[in-house]
Amino acid sequence: MCGENSSSLTPGFFILKGIPGLEAAHTWISLPFCFMYVIAVVGNCGLIYLISREDALHRPMYYFLALLAFTDVTLCTTTVPNMLCIFWFNLKEIDFDACLAQMFFVHMLTGMESGVLMLMALDRYVAICYPLRYSIILTNPVIAKTGLATFLRGVLLIIPFTFLTKRLPYCRGNFIPHTYCDHMSVAKVSCGNFKVNAVYGLMVALLIGVFDICCISVSYTMILRAVVSLSSADARHKAFSTCTSHICAIVITYVPAFFTFFAHRFGGHNIPHHIHIIVANLYLLLPPTMNPIVYGVKTKQIREGVFKFLLGDKVVFTQDK
Fold first, then answer.
1. Quick one: which of 17, 164, 204, 233 has the fewest CB in 10 Å?
2. 3-class DSSP state for residue 310?
């Protein structure tokens, strides 16, 4: 059967099983996920609105933050509503082409998020190491071009996922033990050889994740050197405090991402499958939920913007690089 034309072995739809082994608890599991999704949508849309509305926030740092917020809210929207339909209404069927589309957007947007975090690290590097040239280096055209390049990188590298997955024969059935269409989860349903998928997935992880982390690490190494060389302890604290929100965002994003990536390829039978699925969902939902909170709490200009929105024009913005 597996030797037949793969087009005859393409299912009309897949069945997403949710979290295998925890079906009885789906309703309870859905409640924190739904709560986090509402916070993510309200928080990120609020950030985008605030940055677009306040002239004091029309600066490179906040443009990148708005791009991150847009990426985050789009990312969780590609998966959470469908996941809640599985948990609440037992609507588990997803069209084959819709599954491939969801898979593309999930991986493209996660790559985009990683790229934006890298751009934000470069922004902090320029702001701290070259403060007098900050506005000259990071002009609006430069910001637009780097954002577009990050988007195109994700699109061009992730498009092959859909073709590599579509070519596989699916003679083992159409059940996916997941809450959304992840690349390797779909590939493993196939009865064909998905080694090319696994190798290409590893290459994309290196080209996006490892490259971005290297750029972030180099940026913060240079930032640390610049901050340590400052003579005033107050100046050192002020300079590095502008990076704390971004560092928190990096940790929130990359820790569950690396867990999910390595669990798929090397965790094998050592990690209970339901733990892997839960962490995979948190990997998509935790950064969109936490990033607006982190930036709202730790960034003075964002707090002032919120207060100004709530209280009217009674708050004066503090300018800061």
1. 233
2. helix
